[in-house]
Amino acid sequence: MALLHPDKALAMIEALNPEPRTEVARLEEALGRALAEEVLAPEDSPPFPKAAMDGFAMSSADPGPSWRLAATLAAGDAPARALARGECAKMMTGAMMPPGADKVIRVEYTREQDGVVTLLSEEPYANVIARGENLRKGERVLGPRVLSPQDVGVLASLGRAEVRVAVRPEVGVLATGSELRNPGEPLGPGQIYNSNGLQACAQVSAAGGRTRYYGIVRDEPAVLREAVGRALQECDLLLLSGGVSMGELDFVPGVLRDCGAEILFHKLAIKPGKPTLFARRERGSGGSSPRPAYVFGLPGNPVSAFVIFEVFVRPLLARLLGLRYAPRSVRARLAESFQRRDAERVELRPVRLERGEAHPLKYHGSAHLNALSGADGLLRLEAGVSRLEEGSWTDVRLL
């Protein structure tokens, strides 16, 4: 069976349009949550013309060069009256402009003495922030996105105490393999520690999901079937690691079919990560309309599991939050020539970035997990490309 190109697999994921559940969060708890509404400006910002700096407000039609000081206004003060001809008001930055004034002369361009302000140097600028200069009432301010600290500040400036956000998807993580042991346990002959499970939990949290960790399941179909069936009822997305290849103990594809899941793709033209599986099962509870539960079968090798999560699982989590995931990338020069033997698949290789150059890391394959700890990004080599020359420009997907 021909391997599916990774770009086609990604297009299938990005075409999904699940309806995210939403809830209201207080603004102080909204950082990192996915905004689930369009936020419009409730009024003009600023709602009145105000001084952009300390100085003296007057009418630009009143040439001076001297004015009587009629008022002193700080931010938060409301002017008592309009300025008459020959008058000015002393302004603090942010103060509301009095009626009749349309210009602020900076304090350093003036001299104030005995209630009279005299111009010492021409002021070339108005130094006034006009009403609605930043936002007009009804203007779109924010749309669906992961809320950053500056977004929280913007929402606060609009007077919002709370905001509607997407409910974090419930993501089950289950590691398959009778050879696996949990960190902290002693290892017997032929046994290894379960890094994929905890690595996936960390990636889920970093991507905005909420993790349900089911631990390790032995390579026994009945045991795996019970664990997968329960997880599919409890989770929006299930991540399985291992058991998806062609070995005698790779039970995941058959177990998923037994649980009523439809396998949407299995095996990709990508390195690492060829055995990757993606499936869906419709589910519902009580009288609610069915909601799909999605499944990723991740390869057992830890670098494969990490890379497949970044390339395919992150975009799906974004769709479950009502968002579209756009990975960040940079252009960099290759610091040294790079050659590979097998060029039949798209390959992603860990690189370190330094001063605009991409340095390929020492990398022994998809079991070489510690290579990722020194990586800043992934270099993509297209199928059919076996060599990249030193100094050539390339795109690096940031981690």
Structural account:
- The protein is an alpha/beta fold and 399 residues long.
- The chain has four domains: 6-20 and 168-320, Molybdenum Cofactor Biosythetic Enzyme, Chain A (3-Layer(aba) Sandwich); 22-43 and 141-166, Molybdopterin biosynthesis moea protein, domain 2 (Alpha-Beta Complex), CATH 3.90.105; 50-129, Molybdopterin biosynthesis moea protein, domain 3 (Molybdopterin biosynthesis moeA protein, domain 3); 329-398, Beta-clip, CATH 2.40.340.10.
- 18% of the residues lie in helices and 32% in strands.
- It is built from six helices and 28 strands.
- The model has no long low-confidence stretch (mean pLDDT 95).
Output the CATH topology of the largest domain.
Answer: Molybdenum Cofactor Biosythetic Enzyme, Chain A
Q: Could you report the average pLDDT, rounded to the nearest whole number?
A: 95
Report strand %.
25-35%
Q: Portion of residues in helices?
A: 10-25%
The Cα radius of gyration reads 30 Å
Q: Report how far the terminal alpha carbons are from each other.
A: 32 Å
Number of strands: 28
Biggest β-sheet: strands ordered side by side in the sheet: 7-4-6-5-9-8
Q: CATH first level of the largest domain: which class?
A: Alpha Beta
Shape: elongated
The quaternary structure here is single chain
Given helix and strand content, the structural type is alpha/beta
| Biggest beta-sheet profile | 6 strands, mixed
Query: Which architecture of the largest domain does the CATH hierarchy give at level 2?
Result: 3-Layer(aba) Sandwich
Low-confidence stretches: none
CATH superfamily of the largest domain: MoaB/Mog-like domain
